[in-house]
Amino acid sequence: MVLEPISERKAIVREGRIVYFGLLLTLTVTFVLIIPLMMRPLPEKEQSVEEFAVESMVEIEEVPIDNLPEEIDFQTIVDEWVNTVGGTKSIVIYDLERDEVAATYNAEQNYNTASLYKLFVVYEGYRRVNSGEWDKDASVGSTGYTVEKCLDLAIRESNSPCAETLWAWMGHGDLDDIIVNDYNITDSAISSLLSNATDITKMMKLYYEHPDITDAVLVAAMKDSMLNQPITTYNWRQGLPSGFSEAVNVYNKVGWLYNGRSWDIYHDAAIVEFPEQDRHFIVVVMTNNISFTKIRDLATRLENAV
Length: 306
Prior knowledge:
Elements: H1 6-39, H2 49-57, H3 74-82, E1 88-95, E2 100-105, E3 111-112, H4 117-131, H5 147-156, H6 160-170, H7 172-181, E4 194-195, H8 197-209, H9 216-227, H10 240-243, E5 249-258, E6 263-274, E7 279-288, H11 292-305
Antiparallel strand pairs: 1-2, 1-7, 3-4, 5-6, 6-7
């Protein structure tokens, strides 16, 4: 028998040890990592291999959902109010925090806008000043006012010469096209003085969000003209604003037609802010042959629900 050299026998021993430790390491990894996976309970529903593997390695983190403020049941209040008044009426109440309609009645009926057309003219005017297309210090025809002052007075005091001159500058038909194409308000014909509570609500939402008006000075002026409206020949705030308490801020525009005995038209459009509750709503009321006293009563009912 021929004996192998000692050096060769040592090499064989070393190789044997390497194989042994390699097998031992493989078994250890299998026991530590693979066996626990095999012992996991099967998922209750069918999953792909990839889904099961991911769930085996990491815990799925739940993404918290922002809490919306509590929904307020304005619809019941609107339904009750509608049953207490005659005439023709349409209402939309829009919850700005929840970004949804909170109550509605006959919202698609078109009315003569009366002075609510000024909401469309003035917003477009502010948009043009903001973009630099219009000079805020330019004179507005024979009104005696600048563009800046006319935009203010057309809302604050419902100044018709200001609004009509600015509207003529824009072009009646051109403004109609802008309302459809830029504002996505499609069921109104402002050149014919026709609109409805749904479209007026969309217009008020533009005032609230003012995406095209970024100049802080312009935004502040726009808000102030809707909030501070002193009595002139008329009481501009005898409808919705007077029905809310002093704790509520009402940014408002009215449109009406009084025949000397009664109100053929009385419209009220407002952004209503409840600072204590940090809640904001749009309230649009359009009516024929209904007094502002009834609209004032609706405002009081709404505040009692907040």
